[in-house]
Prior knowledge:
The chain has two domains: 1-104, no CATH class; 106-149, no CATH class. The longest helix has 14 residues, at 2-15. By secondary structure, the protein is mainly α. The two termini are 29 Å apart. The chain contains five helices and no strands. It is 24% helix and 0% strand.
Amino acid sequence: MRYLSYILALAALAVSPLMAEDKIELPPFHHIVGVKPSDAIKVPNKFKLGDKGELICATCHGLKDIDKTPIDEVDKEAADFLVGGHYRNLTGLCYQCHDEQKTQRENIHILLDEHGEIKKKQCTYCHEEVPDRDKKLSIAELKLRLPME
Ligand code: HEC
Ligand code: HEC
Ligand code: HEC
């Protein structure tokens, strides 16, 4: 709930010059709007930005007046609901602007580096300390962060 109000507050702040009259409510966990892309973001030409170079509804949505349409009446099946059409995976849209490499979450189950050495940092996602692999350890000694199940 706190996160939601944070987002709404952010959105309200960000879009207020854009739509002084119609106070819109973005869906929970919706993408931020009203910000100018930093250097980390590359926005392809097909995504139109606002007059000040900021993210507006039409940057990502092709639907006319989406900002004046009640959320439950927005046609998410429409071909131009998202600019560029239907994406097989939604991340296909995200990576148009966000760097795919830099936004990957590390796979914590990959425990060996390119030289076949163990990546000790990975162990501590699940163990409080890196277990000694040469000893026979009891479950308690493994110091798992969460119960086994
Ligand atoms: C950076 C891209 C981006 C911008 C800018 C953007 N949206 Fe969205 N919007 C999305 C994505 C992605 C979804 C989620 C699609 C999904 O989950 O299938 C979405 C979903 C929605 C939905 C449907 C929510 C639902 O769950 O039914 C509405 C309504 C919406 N946006 C309105 C807006 C409005 C109004 C603005 C401008 C104030 C805006 N969006 C700006 C990317 C954006
Ligand atoms: C049109 C370009 C564009 C698209 C498409 C886009 N983003 Fe963004 N996104 C931005 C910009 C601009 C920012 C602001 C941060 C910056 O400029 O570095 C941002 C910020 C974010 C943030 C940080 C928000 C915060 O509160 O700090 C997240 C998380 C994010 N985007 C996720 C996504 C996801 C997930 C998708 C796909 C569903 C997506 N973005 C699609 C342009 C885009
Ligand atoms: C994704 C979670 C996770 C990660 C990451 C992880 N472990 Fe474990 N580890 C476990 C669990 C769960 C067990 C208990 C397995 C069991 O008893 O069947 C375990 C057991 C062990 C054991 C005891 C094995 C045995 O047969 O008695 C050792 C030693 C160990 N881990 C070392 C490591 C080391 C070293 C790393 C990092 C390279 C690591 N673990 C990373 C979850 C993890």
